[in-house]
Amino acid sequence: MEPVRFGVISTAKIAIQKVIPAMQQSAYCRIVAIASRDLARARAAAEALGIARAYGSYAELLQDREIEAVYNPLPNHLHVPVSIEAAAAGKHVLCEKPIALSAAEAQKLVEARDRTGVLIQEAFMVRSHPQWLRARELVRHGRIGELRVVQGSFSYMNVDPANVRNQADIGGGGLYDIGCYPIVTARFLFEAEPVRVASVIEYDPDFRTDRLASVLLQFPAGQALFYCSTQLVPYQRVQILGTAGRIEIEIPFNAPPDRPCRIFVDDGSQLGDASARPETFEVVDQYTVQGDLFARAIREGTPLAFPLEDAVSNMRVLDAVFRAGRSGRFEEV
Question: I need a labelling partner for 146 at 20 to 30 A (CA). Which of 32, 205, 300, 312 fits?
Answer without folding.
Answer: 312
